[in-house]
Amino acid sequence: MNESWITSIGLDIGTSTTKFIVSHLLIAEKGNHFSLPSCQIVDRKITYASRIYTTPLKNDYEIDMNQLADLLAYEYRQSQTDLQDVKAGAVIITGETAGKQNAETIIHYLADRAGDFVVATAGASLEGVLAGKGSGAMQRSEKVEGVIANIDIGGGTANVALFQQGKAIQTFTFHVGGRLIRLTEEGRVEYSSTHIQSWLAANQLTCKKGDLISYDALEKVCMTMSESMISYLTSSPKYECELLLVEKMTHIVPPITEIIYSGGVGQMMIDENPVNIKEVTKYGDIGPLLAKTLVSAASDSSMKRRKAIETTRATVMGAGMQNTEVSGATVFVDKSLLPIKNIPIISVKVEEDGQWKKELFHARLDQILLQARGIFDIRHDPPFALALSDIQFCSYDILQEISSSAYETFSRIFPDSKVLVVICEADMAKALGQALTKINQIDLRIICIDQVDFTHGDYIDLGLPVAGEAISISIKTLAF
């Protein structure tokens, strides 16, 4: 069995705190006489975890880029990590920090200085999934029936990820967090987020900058907020809970069996409950009181609460240890092109309703590539990765027809592109790559990878070889 270790890092820049970890991932190639070889991450070890920093901000609107760059460089030295050895990981900006004016500039600046193959992202959906992986919610869903919800509550947002049978099935985000209201130890409001003002007004609650608020009044705000979010999760909405959603939901929340809390507020749930305004504001915000009221609100629901494996560092651990995947072991890759970051994924169905029809596939492919030409920057090469889905059975003849159609359509619509990336759900990458190469008449460089689940993200990073022919990959959402 071919095995190798790779180094992965995680840097999570949140509303309140910033964390850094280093982990090692063991990649192993597995297979036997009856199946194609495959590569899997079979072991993960955290080798270094930084202290928890207060996220450096210049003001309410900007992140301090210089301080963050210094922090990253310092932590690399402290962890004795060589930049050249980092093959995977993530730099993510989360919560309200993702909305800062210079968030996009900073995250790419840091990712460029974090290693050759590090994800740069600020998507709440991905953040929620990573936190659920780091907290143990995803693993828990593999062992029990029903839906497991992970709620990662930080300073600015509560990211909810629902898991079932080891897969993330739904994500959504609330404006619920400890730093949404900041106060002095006397109870003077120094900051009240604009994101919750309409919800406060709808519930006849007030909490404006400059107000002097009592413990009882603040507890009512926190309890109403907690019950409002829980009511949405149990499909019994009250207290205008939709106003707390970051984005309007289009799907119904399925019945939830168990709930796991992570994040800074999740960690506070095991602390002693605050009983006066001074104890509430020991961090200068409502975090401790929000934690107390969430415990109370959740206890009245049908959802069972389960302890997280990790709370405060759940997202960064998910980023450093869980976002990396491995391609199939038999792939077709021009290794001189690697690594390639931030490739948009466009998906086309090979079959429709379980039926293969060459003419209909060609029409679907033509339509999706024409749409892609109008959406993506054709100066980037590759402009996107073509994802082939819904393949029940792929005979030799069907494989040749897929390759012929993909080659003809791509070279016609993107005549200046020199790289074609194809990703497949099924075990067919090597054969497809060879078929494409055989008909290649314009020196198109081809990458075909398989055994990739591309349903949970809209961008892919292709990393370096990790075991045999397999390469490391990351599927993610980029959203600012």
UniProtKB/TrEMBL annotation:
Q: Which InterPro entries match?
A: ATPase_NBD, EutA, FtsA/MreB
Q: Which domain of life is it from?
A: Bacteria
- The name under which this protein is listed is Ethanolamine ammonia-lyase reactivating factor EutA
Question: In which organism is this protein found?
Answer: Halalkalibacter alkalisediminis
